[in-house]
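Problem 12. The chain below contains 164 residues. Write out its predicted structure in token notation.
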Amino acid sequence: MNVNKVILVGRLTRDPEIRTTPGGQSVATISMATNSFWTDKSGQKQDKTEYHNVVLWGRQAEIASQYLTKGQECFIEGRLQTRAYTGKDGVERRTTEVIGETMQLGSRAQGGSAQQGGGSTPRTYNSAPASAPRKTESQLEEESIPTINLDDEVDEIRIEDVPF
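Solution.
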């Protein structure tokens, strides 16, 4: 059995960049930062930041470009994909990206809420196949924007707390 699954919860390092393919499909790229915290053998608290490039397609790309901003929290679930491209200098390069399949929006950078719209229950945005029917404008307005709040998670997880 093979598994290619990525789950990221972090903050955007820049505003989303959205483009449209020649076929008319929206594609957005976002850059996220995730942090790891631990205590080393000498008792000093350590931290490390990792940066991730995420690609979103279709309606998810449109939602990301409309609601996500630099510094905002975001939850992405997807898969890894490596692709090759030729740089401006003519050299062939490879890059590994996360292809987002599920997205939830978090609180804004200044502590504001990303929760907008008419619903009170957060929703998760899944990527839909190209053959899926498009939602009407009124259906889109009824969708609430999902939120998470990393700031609620202030306690460090200790190995003694893990039940297995």
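Discussion. Residues 58-67 form the longest helix (10 residues). Students who got a different answer should revisit the alignment rule from Section 12.3.
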